[in-house]
Design a protein that fits this description.
The protein has ten helices and 13 strands. It is of the alpha/beta class.
Length: 309
């Protein structure tokens, strides 16, 4: 039992709070803790404060984690819960990923006002998204569609859609499921149609690297399969030096003891796309991700990322 309550750092969005409370409940069940042994600390991040402009204009990666990292390093909180796709590939040296929970649905959901699928949208229809990855893949599939900026949490985007600001939007199935909003889904895109973001659907928990007691507690939450696929995808992303200005998608899956990684990079207009697929033993997850990223860059050419910067 901890001498004082362990504080869980989290953003204050409904999805972030759901994920933090999920980790709380899992710790109560697996680590022999009582309710009084854990507390929540809500932290406002830069990404939460910037509400009306594309986050990629302000650096993108890290905007939902920086202030939480600072609180962790100061000792204001003992652990932090993140959507793994928001976590930069390079963390402060004093912080480690102590657990990755069993992964949720990795796919994207299509939510339309009138059309039943992306293919059914009429020519020139407006699809709202703040994700360059989704934008690029939409334009690759349907270059006739108009993509408009759609910021805000899940509920905010659904309200914007209901208000007629767009004809359709795309959201992660896992987030909708966690918030009890799957009834809003019109259809689900397969990963062949829309490859997800690296680490989509995964919840991770970080703590201070030198906090051995907390690391032992969090180890009870770790799902080996999810941790392996996420490590592969993050390695892939890191090898591409991926930023929010680069449409990158990647998905690692394990079957019969082998790991398969599919990845792609695109131009934001979807006109240029480069794909890679690589398989290997699960114990080589990180190296598979790195090699796949380097191979993809070789196919795209040395100027590809520079042109997008």
């Amino acid at each position: 039992m901890p001498e004082q309550p362990l504080l869980i750092g989290t953003r204050g969005s409904p999805l972030a709070l759901w994920q933090a409370r999920h980790v709380w409940a899992r710790l109560l069940a697996s680590a022999g803790l009582g309710e009084g042994d854990l507390g929540l600390s809500v932290i406002t991040t830069s990404g939460d404060r910037i509400k009306d402009k594309p986050l990629r204009d302000f650096g993108g990666k890290g905007l939902f984690t920086k202030e939480i990292d600072v609180a962790l390093l100061r000792g204001d909180v003992d652990l932090a819960v993140h959507s793994m796709k928001d976590l930069p590939t390079e963390l402060p040296a004093e912080i480690c990923i102590a657990a990755v929970l069993p992964r949720g649905d990795v796919r994207d959901a299509f939510i339309g006002n009138t059309a039943s699928s992306l293919a059914d949208l009429p020519t020139g229809a407006r699809i709202g998204t703040s994700s360059l990855r989704r934008q690029a893949q939409v334009k690759r599939l349907r270059p006739d569609l108009r993509v408009i900026e759609f910021r805000g949490n899940v509920e905010t985007r659904l309200k914007k859609l209901d208000a007629g600001e767009a004809d359709a939007t795309l959201l992660a199935v896992a987030g909708l499921d966690r918030l009890g909003l799957v009834s809003h889904i019109t259809s689900i895109l397969s990963t062949d149609e829309m490859l997800p973001a690296a680490a989509q659907g995964a919840i991770g928990v970080t703590c201070r690297a030198d906090d051995a007691k907390t690391r032992v507690l969090l180890a009870t939450l770790n799902d080996a399969g999810a941790a392996t696929t996420i490590a592969c995808e993050r390695s892939f992303l890191a090898s591409l030096d991926g930023s929010c200005r680069t449409p990158i998608a990647g998905l690692a899956e394990i079957e019969d003891g082998m790991l398969r990684l599919r990845g792609l990079i695109l131009t934001p207009d979807g006109a240029e796309c480069h794909e890679v697929e690589m398989t290997g033993p699960v114990e080589d997850a990180k190296s598979i991700g790195t090699r796949a990223g380097k191979e993809l860059l070789a196919r795209a050419g040395p100027q590809f990322l520079e042109r997008l910067a």
